Amino acid sequence: MIGSLIFLDLREIHYDRIAHFTVGFYAYPIAEFLTRKNLTNSKTITYLFALFAIMALAGTYEVMEWQFAVLGDPEAGMEVLGSQGDIWDAQKDILADTLGAIFALILFHFYFDIKKYEFLDKRRRVFKK
């Protein structure tokens, strides 16, 4: 994780990276939905689907952002690509989304199991009455 933070160049405050990292948190509700509705047969499929959904969303957003900029000024070329001072900005944004999704799925792995057992315990007490 530390290597990833160095790769993201967090010596300066990058609000864009923080925003992209938090977009990755949407992997939690995706995984929760799949689990609650029993739409997958294994935890691995649930986690991978949520992760890949966020990665696909991030990639699609970056392509749409690029297309919008090119359609706005077709002669922009490299200026659009490096408009934020880094030609790898789109890839770093996708990485930040992915790391946020991984973080959210780690939380989901530990928290949702605890929450599920508490829910089942409450349900059992209600039915015993």
Oligomeric status: single chain
User: In which range does the helix fraction lie?
Assistant: over 70%
**Annotation field: number of helices:** 6
Give the number of DSSP strands.
Answer: 0
| Low-pLDDT ranges | none
Gyration radius, rounded: 19 Å
Describe this structure in a few short sentences.
It contains 6 helices and no strands. The chain is mostly helical and 129 residues long. The termini are far apart.
Secondary-structure map:
Blueprint (H helix, E strand, L loop, with lengths): L1 H6 L7 H9 L3 H10 L6 H30 L5 H4 L7 H40 L1
Descriptive report:
The chain is mainly α. Helix content is 77%, strand content 0%. It has helices at residues 2-7, 15-23, 27-36, 43-72, 78-81, 89-128. Helix 2 (15-23) packs across helix 6, helix 3 (27-36) packs parallel to helix 6 (89-128) and helix 4 runs antiparallel to helix 6. The radius of gyration is 19 Å and the shape is elongated. The N and C termini lie far apart (49 Å). The model has no long low-confidence stretch (mean pLDDT 80).
Key terms:
129 residues; mainly alpha; 77% helix; 0% strand
